[in-house]
Amino acid sequence: MLETVRAVSGGVRPAGNSAGNPIVARREDIARAVVAIQFERWPALYARYGEAGRDKCVEDLRYHVLYLAEAVAAGSPDLFREYAAWVKILFSNLGIPVEELGESLEILRDVVVARVDAPTAERVRACIGAALTALPDMPVELPCLIEDDAPFADVARDYLGALLAGDRRRASALVLDRVEGGMAVRDAYLHVFQPCLREVGRLWQTGAISVAHEHFATAATQGVMSMLYPRIFAAERCNRSMIATCVSGELHEIGIRMVADFFEMAGWDTYYLGANTPARSIVRAVEERGASVLAISATITAHVGAVADLIAAVRADLADRPPGNRPLRILVGGYPFNLVPDLWRTVGADGFASSAADAVAIASAD
Q: How many CA atoms lie within 13 A of 13 on its CB side?
């Protein structure tokens, strides 16, 4: 159990907001209660981990509580069901029976329901119930995310091989040579970088590679993207500006960086803030840049609440924006928003884009 929860959290502390969220506000009590029941039902856990391991289980279970809390706050059982599907694959690769996952979810449900009001309890039952119902049919493995018939699949496979071998120079040369030979930068982003990084994530989830491999692949890809910037910034300007950022606590930044680069290729002036940017700094940047679009990324469910908080802060701060300026449009994207089509409305955004190209099209439509 300890290996599982630590792998799920991945060392990233989600930016949960306790204000107004009864589950987040009680996450410490919930985490300790769940672990206490688990250790009572499964004595082998204590024999395996001891008291120190028990404390670490409590620490890591807090993250699971936050995933549930965000799904409940969004009124979206889909979010928690997909989280359970992710954990099932992880369990399978750690050799932990799926029955143990199901019983853990039942314990979590009962503990949370006993500590929240009736309407919240009903949403908790719906979220965990959806996960338990779907659990038997959830896959225990995922297929390779570089499809054989995809455009430039040969380049993507060779690029991935170079990344996993730790050969940054060969990875760079593979892409730069193809771009010099006529491959569009957009195609490098969409058909090489994107599927390769998704495949790296799948390999980490299944235990085939380490976190070090994943971090190297991301850093190497960012380096190649930088080498392509002379071509990206050569586009004719359209005299519009946008800001691209992740919410505070979000460390997965390469997706929103790709979004910013697509806006640059469309002639926009971009202001890329990167990962883990404090909300106040984002609000100030919007004011200073006079941006007409703010693109916000969140890649994990536990950060959906932080997206809503950021949007509310931006709207409150810009309430007195001069009417002569172009109104600010806020677009959101990332894994949770791909799962739940209307989640962007829940967080107060003006729209949602499932890809960098879609983000540009939506922003340019007005």
A: 4
Per-residue pLDDT at 56 exceeds 80:
no
* Phi, psi angle pair for 298, to nearest 5°: -140, 125
In this prediction, residue 366 carries a pLDDT of 67
Mean pLDDT in residue range 213-235: 92
Q: How many residues does the chain have?
A: 366
Helix, strand, or coil here: 242?
strand
User: What gap in Å lies between CA 281 and CA 175, rounded to an integer?
Assistant: 35
For residue 216, which of 188, 196, 246, 192 has the smallest C-alpha distance? Answer: 196
Domains and CATH numbers, the chain: 2-137 (1.10.490.20), 153-230 (1.10.1240.10), 235-364 (3.40.50.280)
CA-to-CA separations, 26 to 4, 20, 82, in angstroms, rounded: 22, 11, 23
> Is 295's pLDDT higher than 90?
yes
Sheet holding 329-333, edge to edge: 269-274, 241-246, 293-297, 329-333, 351-352
Kindly report the three-state secondary structure assignment for every residue of 115-161: CCCHHHHHHHHHHHHHHHHHHHHCCCCCCCCCCCCCCCHHHHHHHHH
59: its two tokens: 């620490």
Angle between helices 194-205 and 77-94 in degrees, nearest 10: 60
CA–CA separation, 42 and 38 (whole Å) = 6
Cα 198 to Cα 92, 151, 253: the distances in Å are: 20, 16, 14
170-to-34, 175, 176 alpha-carbon distances in Å = 48, 9, 10
Average pLDDT over residues 185-191: 95
